[in-house]
Amino acid sequence: MISLRKTRLLNFTQLYRIGQPYKTGAVVLPVDEINFTPSAAIEGMTLTTLDSGIALTISLSPQDRVYGLGQTVGPLNKRGKKYRLYTTDDPVHTPDKENLYGSHPFVMIGSKSPYGLSIDYPAEICLDIGFTDHNVIEITIPSYDADIYLFRAQGHTLTFKDIVKEFLLLTGAPYVPPKWAFGYQQSRWSYPDARSIAQLAERFRKEDIPCDAIYMDIDYMDNFKVFTVDYNKFPDFAAFTGKLKQDGFRLIPIIDPGVKIQDGYDVYEEGKHKGFFCTTKDGSLFQAAVWPGLTHLPDFVNPDARRWWGSLCKRFLDMGIEGFWLDMNEPSIFYTPEAMAAVFDLVSEMRNNPEIPKRCLQDMLNNLSNHRSYFHSLHHRTPSGARISNDKLHNLYGTLMAEAVADAFMENMPGRRYFLLSRSSSAGLARTAAIWTGDNMSWWEHMLSNIRMLMSLNMTGIFYNGADIGGFGCDVSPELMLRWMQLGVFCPLCRNHSAFGTRRQEPWAFDAQTLNCLRDTIKLRYALIPCSYSEFMRCAADLTPFIRPVMFDFDCPFDVEDQFMYGDSIMAAPIHQPNATGRYVMLPQSSWLLCQALTHDNWAVSALPPGVHYIECPLNTTAFFIKENSIAILSEPMSYVGQREIETLRAVAFVTQTARFTYYEDDGLTYDYKKGVYCTLRIEITNTNGQYYIK
Ligand code: MIG
User: Fold this and answer.
1) Ligand 1 geometric centre to CA of 582 (Å)
2) Which residue's CA is minimally distant from atom 6 of ligand 1?
């Protein structure tokens, strides 16, 4: 018999505690100090004890939608698929995949009166959401210890937005990046040295393409040794960082967790000496092969190891770095020495025994990366000193790494906002960092994935996120690049990144016409920053998803998964299909102003009534909508955020009665806004019989 207790929290949360759950840190409320009362059942679901854990069964009505889960492949409405929340480095995001880099066990279920469910558990959770049986959700957890949060109001109807807000009250307010993070960002695996980065920066200014950040992928390091800079490539890194910052560019180096095993390498020596690396069950150091060759993985579960990692980050902060991207933190393991030895054994055996099918070797090689057995044998030390297998708290690794780095920023740049992207994430990451969605491909299908993940990630509190624009793997066509950049106008993180060996993706890597259109598109993004930033900051304070399904705001006759609200005034409807010169859109409830932007200040606008419409959108046009009685605010685009003071704001409004917008501005760099240091400008436009009044 498992122990089940319950309590009430916040406005409409019920916490069901099964056994003695591991303290994941996902929840910011002090739930351990609460008095629980015994419970016989979890309201609205069946709890079953299995041989190796528990199962929760929930029935679905035909019209129920299921939203959430943060970063997964597949539809926005999660119904009809199986998911496995176990963070993994899987670079091929095909529809069959059940897990990616993040784990966000939070779903909202329903249609007219939805309720929410969040599971606080640090390792594998399997969800069969109407896959085996269309009308049943079955969730299995391989443990007898977990916290189940139910968000369900008694006596009144909740909206999806209410539930997200309650979830964020529970897990913490979303991470807010510095304002420059709303600019365009350029990346590539890799810009290897100071010279190539300087040329890149110069080219942006020469081409008159705004840009705020340049990424440094793994090749900046000396032999992939984390926290080193190859000084042959960067003779004076601090001076280089400073010079770029003067020109309006932030440099963002990548940080991988694996520490190269090499005598004399200080990070390795110190980590080993202080016992900060993960071990095997018997306490010997665990070896994982990643980019540097054989490495040890830092034990981020240990708070002292986290502080140590933070102190290493300081080396970069002292050289002017204000942002990092954290890669490989699922954690990713290419192979272990033991697994490789087994490959060699098989190869020798095959030499002697031609009967062994070649497929055996093929299978073995295919299963080499991130084999589940590695995470069983990888061990951490909990704060109480006990050894625990990574498999039991697997999903926390990336989030704990991000926390270590965030703490270093907060300690060393007190009061200043930092920029932090993590690839892996779990509940709780949303308050310390942002994510990019990993290794997508230059496929049209992945634009649609990008759109859906924007919304699902916003539901879990990761408001600031984005995919590699243009696609990471494979070669991009100019058309796909351009359409994706048009989507990028409405992605909080607007970063063009591509893999080693693929076609170049910088804006000038294509023909002249594509270059011109990309420039216009990026400038449109910059012109909209006053609007985007005002809305983002408001949503972050209100705990309302910045990007959300149209169904969250309106009654829709049917669901649309490829349009989204971007704040309150704007609805994006990106083109995500090849050879399209337009698309169908669904305009819910009110009339909408169709904006067809050629450049930031050359738009055709027309009002459309509610319903389904086909809209024209040639390749050189970014199309989006302004809601009836709403305002969008624009400024002249700059070469980078904060280049000049904003002197003139332009309003594009669609007013049949009264429209309001609150323009928001702060220093963009500190947390002083939390102390009230910001200014707002309330803009109101009234239409009285065709006469417009502005105040
Ligand atoms: O094994 O650092 O998702 O953005 O360019 C690949 C090289 C490692 C994966 C990241 C990608 C990055 C790449 N990394």
Assistant:
1) 34
2) 328
Radius of gyration of the chain (CA): 25
pTM here? 0.97
Residues in the chain: 695
Distance CA 426, CA 429 (A): 6
How many other CB atoms are there within 10 angstroms of residue 263's CB atom?
7
**Would you say the C-alpha torsion 642, 643, 647, 652 has a positive or negative sign?**
negative
Sheet bearing 679-688, strands edge to edge: 658-665, 679-688, 691-694
Structure tokens at 196: 């190539």
Burial environment of residue 620 by CB neighbours within 10 A (0 to 12, 13 to 18, 19 or more): middle
In tens, the pLDDT along 126-136 reads 999 999 999 99
217 C-beta closer than 6 A to ligand 1: yes
Instruction: Kindly state if the Cβ of 219 falls inside 6 Å of ligand 1.
Output: no
Residues marked as catalytic:
327, 330, 439
Query: How does pLDDT run across 272-287, given as a tens digit for each residue?
Result: 999 999 999 999 999 9
Are the C-beta atoms of residues 436 and 342 closer than 8 Å to each other?
Answer: no
Tell me if 438 CB under 6 Å of ligand 1. Answer: yes
Q: Is the peptide bond between 530 and the residue preceding it cis, with omega within 30 degrees of 0?
A: no
The model's pLDDT over 229-247, given as tens digits with 9 standing for 90+, comes to 999 999 999 999 999 999 9
For ligand 1, what atom is nearest to the CA of residue 254? 2
Asked if residues 493 and 456 have their Cβ atoms less than 8 Å apart, the reply is no
Q: Which atom of ligand 1 is nearest to the CA of 472?
A: 4
- Rounded to 10°, the helix 512-527/529-542 angle is 50
Side by side, which strands form the sheet with 622-627?
A: 547-548, 564-566, 570-572, 622-627, 592-599, 602-608
Q: How far, in whole angstroms, is CA 651 from its chain's centroid?
A: 30
Helix (H, G, I), strand (E, B) or coil at 278: coil
The atom number, within ligand 1, closest to the CA of 423 reads 3
